[in-house]
Amino acid sequence: MGLLQPETGLLFWMTLAFGVVFVILAKYGFPVILKSIEERKDFISTSLAEAHEARQQVAQVESTCQALRTEAEAQRVQILQQATEQGNQMMTRAREEAAQERERLVAEARQQADAERNAILRDAHGQVAMMAIALTERLLRSNLQDKDAQTALAEQLLKEIHTGNAS
Questions:
Q1: DSSP per residue over the chain, as a string?
Q2: Whole-model pTM?
């Protein structure tokens, strides 16, 4: 017989060997293989569930992060507004204080100028009075060297005093 037509004995022993191997595999091998396949299936299912849960958590974290960014941006804008307002207030206060200081300094300078002007005027009046007295003294010495001129001057001054008091 040829290779394509096996003999009956060979066919019997091959079938018997196949049956024995199949029974051993069915009793000991297939449960282990099925258990491994079931464990792998459970592991894949668990991994998919965890991946889904992780995606949800990532989405939640991203939304929380976006909310925090929005809040931080709002706080930044608020802080910038407050800083601008405080800066404007400080500038206004500084301008007001500078204006008050300028007015105070101008007032002090005016008072000093008035005081100096009054002192100069008093000094000038004193000098003019001294010059007038010196000039009058010289005029009186030259004009009043004789007794008649002195008497005439005294009478004239008395008349002026009486007419000045009468008016």
A1: --SSS--HHHHHHHHHHHHHHHHHIIIIIHHHHHHHHHHHHHHHHHHHHHHHHHHHHHHHHHHHHHHHHHHHHHHHHHHHHHHHHHHHHHHHHHHHHHHHHHHHHHHHHHHHHHHHHHHHHHHHHHHHHHHHHHHHHHHHHHH-SSHHHHHHHHHHHHHHHHHHHH-
A2: 0.41
Identify the band that residue 145 occupies on the pLDDT scale cut at 50, 70 and 90. Answer: low
Tokens 């199949």 correspond to: 22
* 96-126 residue pLDDT tens: 999 999 999 999 999 999 999 999 988 888 8
Whether residue 152 lies inside any domain: the answer is no
Residue 156 domain-assigned (yes or no): no
Q: Is residue 154 part of a domain?
A: no
Q: Give the distance, in angstroms, between the CA of residue 22 and the centroid of all CA atoms in the same chain.
A: 85
The residue type at 109 = A
- Identify whether 136 is part of a domain: no
Q: Domain range spanning residue 125? A: 27-130
